[in-house]
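Let us practice reading a record.
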Amino acid sequence: MFEYVKTWYERKFSDPHSVTLLLLLLALMAMFYFFGAFIVPVLIALVIAYLLDWPVAHLERFGLHRFTATIIVMLIFSGLMLTLVIGMGPVLWQQASNLVQETPHMIEQGKSFLLHLPEQYPSLITAEQVQSVVTSVESKAIEFGQVLLSVSLTSLKDVVAWLIYLILVPLLVFFMLKDKLELVTSAEKLVPKQRRLILQVWHEMNQQIMNYIRGKVFEILIVGTVSFIAFTIFDLRYAALLGVLVGLSVLIPFVGAALVTIPVAAVALFQFGLETQFWTILIIYGVIQALDGNVLVPLLFSEAVDLNPVFIIVAVLFFGGLWGFWGVFFAIPLASLVKALLNAWSTKHDEHAGEKNQL
């Protein structure tokens, strides 16, 4: 066993470029693990900068100076965000407040519906089973209420944090866009000279991350808008709120769609009962999810995602448990990074073996 590990180590890490890549990876992981909570504004700014670098680069091609292009793109982006917040913020807040107020009534309706099931289907379900389900749901509802109360008690701290973010993040985005070349050059000076594999991984990942962030934003907008339009056409209550939830659900591959199905089905059930409208909404929702997974995702992420769904789910669970929301958001790029690292070390080994064969 020791000889096997020794042989593997010598084969993979005899090249100083491999060692440099491994040390850089470990340093980055340690930084995110110990200081992740302090660099959240930097991560948010980095995501937005990746998103806005594309229009800035295109304006540069039309002859504009990068500073001017950055100013124009930042103004347009800030205007769109402000319009979105002013236009949709009050509507979402009102619908969320109404939904919270009606939740106890919806729970009582659901409880009554479940308690009558043994009378309608005595051969399929018993009163004891229903009572067990009702007790479990009530306990979960109490836990959820306690969570909401704790969130409200710490809301002042969160408001202060968001106010700081509203100042720091735009500044970080502006300077990341304006001084992109200088920042990249400074970062290169910090990396040791043995960086062939680092550059290989960086060139492979840089475009993938850019495509992924841009594609994810487009996917959220398209799926959320189509869901809102569909819910509005069928007169589903809280259409805007549910449309936003469906759009944001794409941040968590596979799992997000399953989770958002619960509020969509619950609202439809308590509004229409087991009538035709209820089943129609579920079918339409299923069609939207199917088109998203089988048409929209391949179109948007053809260059960014080349991973088996099993690896994606494992990446969501692993990186989500490690880094929370940002681990989930970057689960696919991080899984692609692992793949790029394995490819880099394999390529190095193949090149090394080829050189020996030539000798």
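A brief commentary: The radius of gyration is 25 Å.
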